[in-house]
Task: structure prediction
Amino acid sequence: MMKKYFLLLFTVVLFFSCSSVRVVTDYDDKVDFNQYKTFAFYKTGIDKAEISDLDKKRVLRAIESELVAQGFTKSKNPDMLVSFFTKSRRKVNVNQNNNFGYGLGWGWNPWMRNGLNNSIQVNQYTEGTLFIDFIDTSKKELVWQGIGTGALVVQNREKKEVRIKKFVKEIISRFPPGKKE
Result:
């Protein structure tokens, strides 16, 4: 019974830890971010992103949606350019559970040694990182970067779309620096 609760708890923790997006940002603290009102995408940078063209479109739509929701306007003569790139890597989680093997019933259990029931769980997943860059068009300098990292869920197109939107929303929510939430 205790083992079932532990496995349920472990599964819930693993699900939520994999579904979250960890975000860090970096920016030029000498920049007044209130000056930026318009944006456009930096095609040259985006073309280098190592994801499918369909996923690039999903990321672009998500970024545009989040920036427009914050009051920015897409423009042919923008204050800032937006670029992004991605990285991914395979990750392995190894968890060893040492549970005492004593419980109901008598008998010999070949998996128990010295009263311990050792079980090892191995989970593999792909961890993705999305970098979103904001570049000042007049200075041609990077002024802000948001980096989101989390497990990628690629079970189907709809879940992929939801996951990309979550990554982008979590990152863009940190812009501009010092914004009241």
About this structure: Residues 21-100+113-172 form a domain with the Double Stranded RNA Binding Domain fold (CATH 3.30.160.670).
